[in-house]
Amino acid sequence: MRVVCLGNGVIDRVFEVEAIPPNPVKVVARGFRESGGGIAATAAVAIARLGGEATWWGRLGDDAVGARVLAAMAEAGVDVGDVPRQPGARSPTAAVIVDAAGERLLAAYPGRDLDDDPAWLPLHKLDHAGAVMVDARWPRGTAAILDAAAARGAPRVLDADLGTADQLLAIAARVDHAIFSATALARAAGTDDPEAGLRAIAGNVGGLVAVTLGERGAVWLDGGRLGRQPAFPVVARDTTGAGDVFHGAYALALAERRPVDAAMRFAAAAAAIKARNGNGWDGMPSRAEVDHLLQGVNA
């Protein structure tokens, strides 16, 4: 089943250190790698790795970073054939510092001079999509794809992480499934309590509202019903991209017509394996790995 993801695609430059320093200081990195990244792009790669058909639409410049993003996604099996590269624009990129416990500090550069006009989007291709997933990095493009998906009755998933509270809530009102990071939910709801935060914004969201809590799993509110999905216990090598994988896997599960509880469980397993594997897009979970983890827990 095809899932169309729209939003950010970057190159992550990842530095591995023993500990993230609390103050400005020079440290020696234990390791360095470059990998594809970005919320929607990582979700698309996860979908492809999990056996789904993935398409990514986003904004890139006609520069070396943009070329590498598209090449890496195509190599991972994601359809990027419709994405233009804008002359004179600079593509997004990010620096990531990862400590020995797998936690990370991320600095994201959003790019420059990227065209805001979504007219190039081939929205007719949504006729054959089982779901769409968006982030908040391109509001006009997000609005266009969500309107088109709604007209076709396709499930719409928001990865609510980067963006102002107003931006995230405006997009959340147009989707069926708004899944926030803990920091984004606190920013939007004005409270650090996950359950209280979900209830505070539920009236502003078009359907299910959820929050991912890392090693504490995920909590969601759907029609007044509160659900919880515990995290799968793993030794985390690198949590970078685990939340993006969760959203991609969740969207794929919806496209496969799984109920919400099963979709949350599938997504949590995929995210746990990504955190365990680390290694950027090369550490994406396979369907066999996810099934094995789920079967082991159920046994």
Summarize the structure.
The protein has 299 residues and is α/β, with parallel strands linked by helices. The chain has a single domain, classed as UDP-N-acetylmuramoyl-L-alanine:D-glutamate ligase, CATH 3.40.1190.20. It has 9 helices and 14 strands.
Characterization of the model:
The protein has 299 residues and is α/β, with parallel strands linked by helices. The chain has a single domain, classed as Ribokinase (UDP-N-acetylmuramoyl-L-alanine:D-glutamate ligase, 3-Layer(aba) Sandwich), CATH 3.40.1190.20. It is 35% helix and 24% strand. It contains 9 helices and 14 strands. It has helices at 39-49, 64-75, 139-152, 165-172, 182-189, 194-201, 242-255, 260-277, 287-298; strands spanning 2-6, 10-16, 31-37, 53-57, 60-61, 85-86, 93-98, 104-109, 129-134, 156-160, 177-181, 208-212, 218-222, 225-229. It has an 8-stranded mixed beta sheet with strand order 4-1-9-10-11-12-13-14, with helices on both faces. Strands 3-2-7-8 form a 4-stranded mixed beta sheet. A two-stranded parallel sheet has the order 5-6. A hairpin with a 5-residue loop joins β12 (208-212) and β13 (218-222). α5 crosses α6 (194-201), α7 (242-255) runs antiparallel to α8 and α8 (260-277) packs across α9 (287-298). It is globular, with a radius of gyration of 18 Å. The two termini are 28 Å apart. The model has no long low-confidence stretch (mean pLDDT 92).
